[in-house]
Amino acid sequence: MNKLSKDAAQAFAFIRMKMNTAGAAPTINEISTYLSVSTRATLDALRELEDNLVIKRSPYRTRSIEILAEVDGDTGVVKENTVSIPILGTAPGGAFLFAEQNYEGEICLPSRLLRGKDSQNTFLLRVTGNSMKPYLEDGDLALVKKQETANRGDIVVAVVREDSGGYEATIKEFQTDTSGKIVLNPLNTKEYKPFVLTDQEVGIQGVVVGAIKDFS
């Protein structure tokens, strides 16, 4: 249960009211005026809302606040709406290994962890290996948004398809080199090397948007 500070809870109430009545989020100056606090204190309140995954902001746009979760107006406690996300097997975090998308069931997650992304296009993969350490380690669950394209620097689920009908999967950082080839980089460069592939040799299945750490 996450309880917000007074300023953060009041800032959220004002944001929700403005979006309901005006159809747009308020500016920082409007929030400061409503709270009767400084701009710095307002930014601290907004940062608290972001840290608790209550809102999402675009840094270079005004009135760009998106609400991810609701807040109880009386207690300041973040309301936990949940969604069921399927676990679709494993993705080696080390070398390319054979992997099948075996459905392992579903787990319920707070919807705000999706940061506004469509739960129908989101799935979990269990990580094996430590090539993406410290971001993803053996036993963690990677939260993946389904898509077939990626930008440089994205952490992707990349699949190499085989003539036999099977495939190999890995989670790596997506880059391209000067020749146009795809480079799949590990974060743990001390123990693992990158893979350099043509676009015919690899397919993007999704982009990792979060992680559930294994503390066992």
UniProtKB/TrEMBL annotation:
GO molecular function per UniProt: DNA binding; serine-type endopeptidase activity
Entry keywords, A to Z: DNA damage, DNA repair, DNA replication, DNA-binding, Hydrolase, Repressor, SOS response, Transcription, Transcription regulation
The keyword Transcription regulation belongs to this UniProt entry's keyword annotation: yes
Span of domain LexA repressor DNA-binding: 1-63
Residue ranges constituting the Peptidase S24/S26A/S26B/S26C domain according to the UniProt record: 86-209
Domain of life: Bacteria
Protein's recorded name: Repressor LexA
